[in-house]
Amino acid sequence: MKILIADDHALFRDSLRSLLEAHGIEVVGEAKNGREAVELARRLNIPVATDLRGLIEDPRLDLVIDDRLTAVRGRRPEIEYDLVTVNDLSAGLAQRPDAVIVATGATQRLPDIPGVKLPHVSTTVDMLMGRTAPGRRVVIVDEEGYFAAPTTADFLAERGAQVTIVCRYFMVGEDIDEGTRSDLYARLFSRGVTLQPMTRAIEILPHCVRTRHTFSNAEGVVEADSVVIAFGGKADDALLRELEGKVAELKVIGDAYSPRRVHDAILDGTRVARAL
Ligand SMILES: Cc1cc2nc3c(=O)[nH]c(=O)nc-3n(C[C@H](O)[C@H](O)[C@H](O)COP(=O)(O)OP(=O)(O)OC[C@H]3O[C@@H](n4cnc5c(N)ncnc54)[C@H](O)[C@@H]3O)c2cc1C
After folding, report:
1. Binding site membership of 262 for ligand 1 (Cβ less than 6 Å)
2. 155 C-beta closer than 6 A to ligand 1
3. Are 118 and 206 in contact (CB under 8 A)?
4. Is the pLDDT reported for residue 13 higher than 50?
5. Which of 162, 167, 134 is nearest to 148 (CA)?
6. Closest protein CA for atom 39 of ligand 1
7. Which fold has domain 84-109+233-276?
8. Which residue, by CA, sits nearest to atom 40 of ligand 1?
9. What's the pLDDT at 265?
10. Mutational pocket test of ligand 1: of 83, 85, 146, the residue with most ligand atoms within 8 Å of the beta carbon
């Protein structure tokens, strides 16, 4: 079987490709959106069995997104939807919406560790989005306790980096459920990732991270060409502030309200949409 993967997240495309290839399924291409998927499928001469709209349509949502991902139409004619991009906010406001729901997510939080502004320090999002190139030895400083650090470690180790996760909690991925954590650990250890829990990063230097054990206070050094920060996010409410007083009803959902998890963002969105 030949597969073409279409998803806007590089990490998801990558994980899915690894999973499929591990099961002997050939991945013939990757696309970042519906339009790319259709074009690539034509170029590779892959028959598109289903109209892409059918794939995007979700019966639980009252929305259908067209196959070029440029328009949205609702099944309920009394509700109008329009895609407004960052650059045409004033055009969006000119339509005098009855309500605006802000879902701008979060920006990455940087800790107050000396050396955090050095050029070889970045965040998990920067690394996963390819905005920063990793060095050979990478230290991930994790204070989030969830997926960000281990998935970034997995991503980098797969590309040949020698990765250490330094985390002040009792274990890396403490907030991840037991079953998933075991699978994740199997991947990390098989890729040679080193986990150093109960350890704080106390200083970042150009070629290493200085650490202190949470309980013994023993200090240590981990060599690093790149340092990645996983300290969670802080609400990106810039757009919310900009819109205050300009629209009749203003709502905020997901990480823009408070950085949490995907299911919280979905629940917030569902609640707000139903209330409207
Ligand atoms: C590395 C990493 C791994 C994670 N892993 C998990 C996990 O395994 N499970 C889990 O439940 N959660 C995970 N999370 C958390 C989860 O991704 C978030 O809680 C969730 O994505 C929040 O959804 P959201 O819609 O509020 O914001 P986002 O998904 O961040 O979406 C916000 C969107 O708004 C856009 N935007 C920002 N400003 C503007 C503007 N002015 N105009 C227009 N658009 C704008 C942004 O570009 C972005 O596309 C992870 C987070 C990170 C960083």
Report:
1. yes
2. no
3. yes
4. yes
5. 167
6. 104
7. Rossmann fold (3.40.50)
8. 86
9. 95
10. 146
